[in-house]
């Protein structure tokens, strides 16, 4: 909330209104597709999309991972035939063709990663994930700063230490 709301222009919440106390969950996001698809990274996805525009499934247009991914697609020239938000981007989202690629957290797609039905083509993490060592990070593929998502506990600025 302290990050997304200011980015969206909401002035009620400002970054300096809160003080971080702790990180309690990191949230590895990965871009997945069917294992049979002929692309394994953003560069190959761009080339593929030049003849076969792809559909992109995500959690929502205002979500930070979606914004970063859409900007990455734009910067790299990936052609989309469409994008859609889903309540949950899971194995079925890409396996049944609702989306050619899906942005999800690794926990949600772990069963089909383990079975080999889907593959990761990028991770939104600081380092490659042990479960998907062949999928390079967004930063490795784009030259951008490393990016990862986490959830934290915050208090209002000025809250007494005790």
In short:
By secondary structure, the chain is of the alpha/beta class. 28% of the residues lie in helices and 28% in strands.
N-to-C terminal Cα separation, in Å?
24 Å
Helix run count? 6
What characteristic shape results from the CA principal axes? globular
Q: Tell me about the biggest sheet?
A: 5 strands, mixed
Low-confidence stretches: none
| Overall residue-averaged pLDDT value | 89
Strand order of the largest sheet: 4-3-5-2-6
Per DSSP E runs of 2 or more residues, the count of β-strands stands at 7
Rg, rounded, reads: 17 Å
Structural class: alpha/beta
Q: Give the DSSP E fraction (strand runs of 2 or more residues).
A: 25-35%
* Run of helices and strands: HEEHEHEHEHEHE
Portion in helices: 25-40%
Describe the structure.
- This protein has 162 residues and is an alpha/beta fold.
- Helices cover 28% and strands 28% of the residues.
- A five-stranded mixed β-sheet has the order 4-3-5-2-6, with helices on both faces.
- It is globular and about 55 Å long.
Note the topology:
Elements: H1 4-7, E1 18-26, E2 29-34, H2 42-49, E3 54-58, H3 64-76, E4 80-85, H4 91-95, E5 101-105, H5 106-115, E6 118-124, H6 138-142, E7 150-156
Parallel strand pairs: 3-4, 3-5
Antiparallel strand pairs: 1-7, 2-5, 2-6
What are its keywords?
single chain; 162 residues; alpha/beta; five-stranded mixed β-sheet; 6 helices; 28% strand; globular
